Amino acid sequence: MTTTGEEHVTARGGPWWWARRRSAALDVGLAVASAVECGLEGIPFAEEAGLPVAAGVVFGLLAGSVLLVRRKWPIAVVLVAIAVTPAAMGFLLSIVGLYSLAASEVPRRIIASLAGMQLVGTLIVMFVRVRQDIAREDLEVGDWIVPFAAVTTSLGLTAPPLLLGLYVGARRRLMESLRERADSLERELQLLAERAEERAEWARNEERTRIAREMHDVVAHRVSLMVVHAAALQAVARKDPEKAVRNAALVGDMGRQALTELREMLGVLRAGTEGAGRRERASVPLVAVGVAAAAAASRAVDGPEGAEGGAAEGPCLSEIDELVGQSAAAGMVVDLSVEGEVRSYAREVESTAYRVVQEALTNVHKHAAGAKTYVRLAHRVSEIAMQVENEPPPEAASSARLPSGGNGLVGMKERVSALGGVFVSGPTEAGGFRVSAVIPAS
């Protein structure tokens, strides 16, 4: 992770106000060099001012050592440099102090003011010094040489450190801004990754539920019919051998269909996992497997011929007659009625309507064996409605003792709600049970 700001200081901290030990060593070295320079320049200053040499040396040492605090108090360093300029000392102090001031976070107007004072002070001192030197050496030069030398020297001592400090300060602020932005982006990416992981987990759970619902829809109905036929076969095996043979044939056909559907679904799941493993060398996302499983479940109702043909067609309303006929063959009395003009709908609408009727008939086999059942379909202008209602089962009717997971009604409601429809189920006043659903046509 990128380390900036206070974290950077903490990671590589130095003594006192320095961010790093290397910075402290540099400032100490500059302060020693400046103190030595100012101490040596304090000797002629003391002689000219009529002061003891020791006083001039001590004054120079104290003035030059101010560079030690150039990072913490750059304004104080520049003010000291301006103050000692008339004494013709502190050139290193002036250059480094002005650079430190320009590179700091001090407002620009203060930097400009102090730099102007430094420029004017250096200009005046150099003008006087050059003029005195020329007079002392008794040189014959033009009148222009004195101001030219003073201006060029003052600009040379002021402009380069000022411009360099402004550049370094701007670059430092830019780098800090980029580091902060990188840290912010990293935190955002981490947050997005956490949210993506949560969404992936939610999607996996949703697909697990979806796969379980598809397995329940395509298998439970046929297995329930197989159990009903097996019970009938046991009852008539000795009394009516021909009927027993027919029931046995029906059980065999339904068993083969159920196995075919299971084989297709598991085959698609296995193929999807192996394909994703070759492409990504990682575990396949359950979302992709769920989509493949849903496609397999939709094809499963059409039998092996439909699967081999490659058509990704799921159950449709035109197969309701066959669905009702299978229940009738199992001994259920089913009355099918259709209202309105029969027309085609979107594939998911027809598949959901078929599954609702299929699950409702399966529940009748499980919980109300022998009860008369009414299946009604209504084709309306902008929706399709379906209702499956059974009468109370006869008291003499034997229960098929089929297991129930209690998820059939929940699965139907989820399917219908996902398409924006309405699902209602519950017992009737007569003692039966009613399942009703309305699905928008588009």
UniProtKB/TrEMBL annotation:
A GO MF label: kinase activity
Annotated coiled-coil positions are 168-206
Name the Pfam families on file.
HisKA_3
TM region positions: 49-69, 75-98, 110-128, 148-170
Q: Which residues form the Signal transduction histidine kinase subgroup 3 dimerisation and phosphoacceptor domain?
A: 207-272
Q: Which reaction does it catalyse?
A: ATP + protein L-histidine = ADP + protein N-phospho-L-histidine
Question: Origin organism of this chain?
Answer: Streptomyces fimbriatus
* CDD domains per record: HATPase_UhpB-NarQ-NarX-like (cd16917)
Keywords from the UniProt entry: ATP-binding, Coiled coil, Kinase, Membrane, Nucleotide-binding, Phosphoprotein, Transferase, Transmembrane, Transmembrane helix, Two-component regulatory system
This protein is called what? histidine kinase
* Keyword Cell membrane belongs to the record: no
Q: Could you tell me the superkingdom of the organism this chain comes from?
A: Bacteria
EC numbers on record: 2.7.13.3
Write down the InterPro entries for this protein, in alphabetical order.
HATPase_C_sf, Sensor_HK_TwoCompSys, Sig_transdc_His_kin_sub3_dim/P
